[in-house]
Specification:
Distance between the termini: 43 Å
CATH topology of the largest domain: Hypothetical Protein Yqey, Chain: A, domain1
Structural class: mainly alpha
Strand content: under 5%
CATH superfamily of the largest domain: Uncharacterised protein YqeY/AIM41, N-terminal domain
Radius of gyration: 18 Å
InterPro entries: Asn/Gln_tRNA_amidoTrase-B-like, GatB_Yqey_C_2, YqeY/Aim41, YqeY/Aim41_N
CATH class of the largest domain: Mainly Alpha
Number of domains: 2
CATH architecture of the largest domain: Orthogonal Bundle
Protein name: Aspartyl-tRNA amidotransferase
Order of helices and strands: HHHHHHH
Pfam family, one: YqeY
Number of helices: 7
Helix content: over 70%
GO molecular function: carbon-nitrogen ligase activity, with glutamine as amido-N-donor
Length: 147
């Protein structure tokens, strides 16, 4: 079942259950997917839909940090529950050990040896972990390995 099909099915269930919060989040995700599809002029394959979903999750995490800094607990609670709903549609995340193994393999593939090669390694690693690992964590690990 594709991501869009899963979202549609879950949206119908949320409507029947009168779960306004889940329904709202799913509608926002579907709107983002639809906008991206219109922009590209074709239906989104699952990997591009995953990129949109990742962007939605990142936006919410950034908002969460801003609300925490501003001391807005009401908004922190709201965004935290939205993040939980969005994460249900994300693929299982890689563990830090798995990401390190992928990075070690990639470093040897590209022949990286110093900090000057961080960009080259990141460019090769990110497609391998797309949607399954946080870019910040990947960057931190790559920097520590090449220091």
């Amino acid at each position: 079942m594709s991501l869009v099909d899963r979202l549609t099915t879950d949206m119908k269930q949320a409507m029947k259950a009168r779960d306004k919060e889940t329904l709202s989040v799913i509608r926002m995700i579907k709107t983002s997917l639809q906008n991206e599809s219109i922009k590209l002029g074709k239906p989104l394959p699952d990997d591009e839909a995953l990129a949109v979903l990742t962007r939605e999750l990142k936006q919410r995490k950034d908002s969460l940090q801003e609300f925490k800094n501003a001391g807005r607990q009401d908004l922190v609670d709201e965004v935290t529950s939205e993040i939980a709903i969005v994460q249900k549609y994300m693929p299982e995340q890689f563990s830090e050990e798995k990401v390190e193994a992928i990075i070690d393999e990639t470093i040897s593939e590209v022949g990286a040896a110093s900090k000057a090669d961080i960009g080259k390694v990141m460019k090769a690693v990110m497609p391998k972990v797309k949607g399954r690992a946080d870019g910040g964590m990947v960057n931190k690990i790559v920097r520590s390995k090449l220091s």
